[in-house]
Amino acid sequence: MRRFLGLLLCGAGAALLLAVGFDYARAAYARKHAAEVWKQESSGSLASHWPDSLKKGDPAGRITIPAVGLDEVVIEGVDPADLDIAPGHFPGSALPGEAGNAIISAHRDRQFHALQHVVLGDTVITQSRAGRVTWIVVSRRIVERGTPALFATKDPTLTLTTCWPIRYVGPAPDRLLITAKLAGSGDRPASARSSLSVR
Amino acid sequence: MIPGGTENARLVVQFGIPSIRWRRLVTIVRTAVFAFALSFGASTLAAQFPAAVIPPDSLARLDSAARRDSIRLSGGELQDWRLADSLTAVATGEVVRADEDSVSFQNGSPAPYTGSGVPMFAIAGVGALLAGVALIRR
Predict the structure, then answer these.
(1) Is residue A136 packed enough to be buried (19+ CB in 10 Å), middle (13-18) or exposed (0-12)?
(2) Which of A47, A135, A136, A180 has the fewest CB atoms within 10 Å of its CB?
(3) Which residue on chain B is closest to A117 by alpha carbon?
């Protein structure tokens, strides 16, 4: 009986690990696909290739934070299924570089794990249909989950969100919000006109 | 000696010692499970258990353009910046109470839910495996 129970537990554990492995394999495949689509769309002129409206799951851009080694393709949508694949652009918010608040969210245990090391003054680089834009981090806040914290802005603003504390087993009680403004007093730097490159 | 039985069968009956065939099966299952766990890879495990393991830096994969544009300003250099994060925009528009699970941005939305149950499933799976192996070995 004891051995039967042991085998049963082993089977259940293996099944759970298989499910987790399948989830990651599926997410990795979808992420790779999104990166390939993004590469195709960004290889030419952004203005001529970019769709007018983004559907859920479409690549919405790319975000790079060199100081912490973050480089990810962003997809449209912040559903759990979207966030399992890649950082998600909050539908209804501006795209990075457009007037308004562009909001990008991701899991703390996946793509935005490194966000804990981002400090004021760090550079964030985004690419989207609005072009290649360089941002400077100007604010880092922690708010309770559920707190109204994301607001519309007139100026181009970039807000990155993830769960907080980063090292927390279980549902995290807070949210980390990092806000960035356009570098160079609102003007895009000369490097913003450089060609796109995707790894 | 049990009539028609083997020495291993006698040991199992008399002393509860598992047969060689049974031990082989357990070894095979254990090896397969261990190999499967290893196949996840260190980076995936690191990403799933941030409380214990930190993922390796990936600066090397950044393109040169991103590195060129990367700067890190001191706090003093930020004095001229208008600290207009989204919080200061409250007064400029009507604030709407939105749910955390809302999938469309509204003025006043909370940060989207970015939790994941997958790490808990992984922990539960490893725990069940360890408990199962412990029961079998007893």
Answers:
(1) buried
(2) A47
(3) B57
Question: What mean pLDDT do residues A149-162 have?
Answer: 88
Model pLDDT for residues A47-74, shown as the tens digit of each residue: 555 666 788 888 899 999 999 999 999 9
Residue of chain B whose alpha carbon sits nearest to that of A7: B132
Residues of A in contact with B76 (CB under 8 A): none
Average pLDDT of chain A to the nearest whole number? 83
pLDDT tens sequence across A99-112 = 889 999 999 888 89
Calculate the alpha carbon distances from B59 to A72, A184, A188, B74 in Å: 13, 24, 24, 21
Say if CB A103 and CB A117 are below 8 A apart: no
* pLDDT tens profile B51-100: 554 444 444 445 555 555 555 544 444 443 333 344 444 445 555 666 76
Question: What are the residue boundaries of the structural domains of chain A, listed by start?
Answer: 2-193
A155: left (phi over 0), alpha (psi -120 to 50) or beta: beta
By Cβ distance, the residue of A6, A161, A171 closest to B133 is A6
ipTM: 0.78
| Separation in Å, CA of A33 to nearest CA in chain B | 19
For A2-193, which CATH superfamily applies?
Answer: Sortase (2.40.260.10)
* Segments of chain B assigned E as strands: 109-110
**Domain boundary assignment for chain B:** 1-48+118-138
Tokens standing for A1? 């009986």
